[in-house]
Design a protein that fits this description.
CATH topology of the largest domain: Butyryl-CoA Dehydrogenase, subunit A, domain 3
Largest sheet: 8 strands, mixed
Oligomer: single chain
Distance between the termini: 47 Å
Helix content: 40-55%
CATH architecture of the largest domain: Up-down Bundle
Shape: globular
């Protein structure tokens, strides 16, 4: 398997990097402090076609392969985890419609999503339901030619600004997916402030009170909401979060090395201290390892390989858990300077923790990976040679 980037992929990588350096880095801290995205940055993402990254070209999207999509998430993850999360949830909704939606749904929504005219958000989590998604309490009841949805969702990324939501509710006691427009009667939202990290992710709580949606807004079939629709969405979400973690880890490495070169203690630059060198070495190796795990998972996705889901679990688990140590060491290297809001390092430290919770906690991934490993790993039995007579 060729793990090297192609010329085309490297050109796009440079394009992402240049955009991030020019447009995202200068406003990332400000967006974190204000706990919102600037409207103009979303417009610029749309102008570049980035919001159509995973959407088929037949609907006006870029149709980039998983490696390119992962590179985009890594580059944006270096600068702003909050902004990067926009891509994740928007793409999750687009993937659901593209894979499980009707032709009418595809024609109606995908071109608008590709252009950034419509922003999508993924609405699965509820106040009392996180990892145990099958226990969702939101309910959809069929009446005449429409559904009536009642329930509540929480911690919904981009919930403040999204135009459409992929909402999961129980219909006939079976988890089912629906498209709910943000301007529907009976639908309201409440912004969430004061999060530990991801403060620019525009999180919201959603409320459905006798919210009517037409029959044609069901995505897939009754009962396929989790087993089919959500599964494909979450697989993509985990992959993009893993790639974003690589970018955040790279940012920590860059901040640490730059600071260590300039900062002097006892007449010596920090970079010359053996213990600091050890920290930086571990950062560099961990980030490179995580990047290769993401590339491997991406390659398997391109091949539609049966192992791609498990390798995505591995990539997400490793990439998100490595950040705990990397970001902690980054703050340690900066000392008190890294504990102040004036330092970018403080934001990176806060954002890192969220990555080990979203799209499946580290503990859930441990269960998934261990179970899959137990099912697929077999020990080769040793058979002693029999003596020839």
């Amino acid at each position: 398997m060729n793990m090297l980037l192609t010329d085309e992929q490297m050109v796009l990588q440079k394009d992402f990097k240049d955009f991030v350096e020019k447009e995202v880095f200068p406003i990332a801290d400000m967006q974190d402090h204000k706990e919102c995205l600037e409207e103009h940055i979303v417009e610029k993402l749309a102008d570049k076609g980035y919001l159509g990254a995973v959407i088929s070209s037949s609907y006006g999207g870029k149709e980039w392969d998983p490696i390119v999509s992962g590179i985009m998430h890594e580059e944006f993850g270096r600068a702003s985890t909050g902004l990067r999360s926009l891509f994740t949830v928007h793409e999750m909704v687009a993937i659901a419609i593209q894979r499980w939606g009707s032709e009418e749904q595809k024609e109606k929504w995908l071109p608008k999503m590709a252009k950034g005219e419509v922003i999508g958000a993924f609405a699965l989590t509820e106040p009392e339901v996180g990892s145990d998604a099958k226990s969702i309490q939101t309910v959809a009841v069929h009446k005449e030619n429409h559904f009536v949805i009642n329930g509540q969702k929480k911690w919904i990324t981009m919930g403040q600004i999204a135009d459409i939501f992929l909402v999961f509710a129980k219909y006939d006691d079976k988890p089912t997916a629906f498209i709910v427009e943000g301007n529907r009667a009976g639908f309201t939202r409440k912004l969430i402030k004061g999060m530990l990290g991801f403060r620019a992710s525009m999180g919201a709580e959603l409320f459905f009170q006798d919210c009517e949606v037409p029959e044609e807004n069901m995505v897939g079939k009754c009962g396929t909401g989790l087993t089919h629709v959500a599964l494909s969405c979450l697989d993509h979400g985990r992959y993009t979060v893993a790639c974003g973690c690589v970018g955040l880890g790279q940012a920590c490495l860059e901040e640490s090395t730059n600071y260590a070169r300039k900062r002097k203690q006892f007449g010596e630059r920090l970079i010359n201290n053996q213990l600091i060198k050890k920290m930086i070495t571990e950062m560099a190796v961990q980030v490179k390892a995580a990047r290769q795990l993401c590339y491997y998972a991406g390659c398997l996705k391109m091949q539609k390989h049966s192992d791609s889901i498990n390798e995505t679990w591995v990539a997400k688990y490793f990439a998100s858990t490595m950040l705990d140590k990397i970001c902690s060491d980054t703050v340690q290297i900066h000392g008190a300077n890294g504990c102040n809001q004036a330092s970018r390092v403080e934001r990176l430290f806060r954002d890192a923790k969220i990555n080990s919770i979203i799209e499946g906690s580290s503990q859930m991934h441990e269960l998934l990976i261990a179970t899959n490993t137990a099912m697929t790993t077999r020990r080769t039995k040793f058979k002693p040679k029999t003596e020839e007579k």
